[in-house]
Each structure stands twice: as structure tokens, then as C-alpha cells.
Write a structure and sequence with these properties.
With about 190 residues, this protein is mainly alpha-helical. The protein has seven helices and no strands. Helix 4 packs antiparallel against helix 5. The protein is elongated.
Length: about 190
């Protein structure tokens, strides 16, 4: 999404369409019966599971990396800098009042778009995490190493993985294998 201030104010209405498409694709992947696909396509279940898990991991990673928890502070600094530049240009008579007002509108449009996309990235990441973890548990039952591999490919660190598992799939019989080994402390959900 080009949010540069040079882009006119009549941008497309949907500034998060790319996130919507990616989210829909990941959810579609999660609904596929990979056992049936394997039989129909004469491809091993493991290959299909690996490919779909990789696609879903990449989608989640792409959306997740677009979220910036510090965006608000960065935008405040950026707005102050841009307003100071505009003030100096106006003072030195390099721009007139109409141009100064137009620059302000463009700056605010850019910040508004960045904020909208940042919030959408956070919201989509939060909603896709559960879908993604359920997909991994279904595709790789009992194989914590593969589940962790794809979680890392989605952009999560070793330190983030236990909390991600707890808040998405939690501890239940089908996810118990995720709580064993790998130096993970066993915790029960409250």
C-alpha cells in the first residue's frame, strides 16, 4: 500500500484489501481436507501438509511483520517534523497558505492510512494465530518439532512460542504433545 504523501486524497476506499485477501487465503487453506486432496492428487499427505503449513506461515508472517507497536510515537515525531518543515517553507515564502494547508492534509491522510493498516495488521494477526495453530495441530499431530518449525517460519521466536500456544490452542488432549520436551515448563491454563 503506497501511503506516501504525494498520493492524492481520493485513494481507494479499502486500504486493507491485501490483508483481507491474505486472511481469506489462510482460512481457506485451514478448511481443506488434506487427506482427500492427497488421495485425489496422488500426492503424499505430508507434502500437502508441509506446503499448506508453509503458505499459512508465510501469510501470517507477512501480516505480523507489518504491525508496529511503536507506530503512534513514530507518527507524533513525524508529524512534528513535517509541520516544522511546512512552517519554515511558509515562513520563507516558498509555499503559500493553500499549499501549506494541502501539505497538512496529505500528512494527516498518510498518518491515518498508516494507523488504519497498523491496527488491521494487529487485528488480522491476532485472529489468524488460532487458525494457524489449529491447522498445525491437525496437520502434524504428535510432532512438536514440525509445529515449532512452522511457528518460527511465521515469525515467532522461541520465547514467544509457549505463550502463543497457550492463548490459541491451549492445553487439551490433542495439544498435550506441544507441552512436552523442548525445555518448556508445563503450565496449566487458569
Amino acid at each position: 500500500m503506497d501511503a506516501s504523501p504525494e498520493i492524492p486524497a481520493f485513494w481507494r476506499e479499502d486500504k486493507t484489501l491485501d490483508y483481507d485477501v491474505k486472511t481469506s487465503a489462510a482460512r481457506y487453506i485451514a478448511t481443506q481436507d488434506i487427506d482427500r486432496l492427497a488421495a485425489v492428487l496422488s500426492v503424499s499427505r505430508e507434502k500437502i501438509a508441509g506446503l499448506y503449513a508453509l503458505y499459512a506461515a508465510k501469510i501470517l508472517h507477512d501480516i505480523k511483520q507489518n504491525y508496529d507497536p511503536d507506530l503512534g510515537e513514530k507518527q507524533k515525531r513525524q508529524l512534528q517534523e513535517e509541520e516544522e518543515k511546512k512552517r519554515l517553507l511558509y515562513r520563507d515564502r516558498k509555499i503559500d497558505i493553500n499549499q501549506a494547508n494541502f501539505k497538512s492534509i496529505l500528512i494527516h491522510n498518510k498518518i491515518s492510512t498508516e494507523d488504519l493498516r497498523n491496527n488491521a495488521a494487529k487485528m488480522r494477526t491476532d485472529s489468524l494465530e488460532k487458525t494457524f495453530l489449529n491447522l498445525l495441530v491437525e496437520y502434524f499431530p504428535g510432532n512438536a518439532a514440525l509445529v515449532r518449525k512452522y511457528i518460527k517460519l511465521a515469525g515467532y521466536s522461541d520465547k514467544e512460542i509457549p505463550n502463543l500456544i497457550d492463548r490459541t490452542v491451549g492445553r487439551e488432549p490433542k495439544t498435550e504433545f506441544l507441552y512436552k520436551g523442548a525445555g518448556r515448563k508445563k503450565r496449566m491454563r487458569p
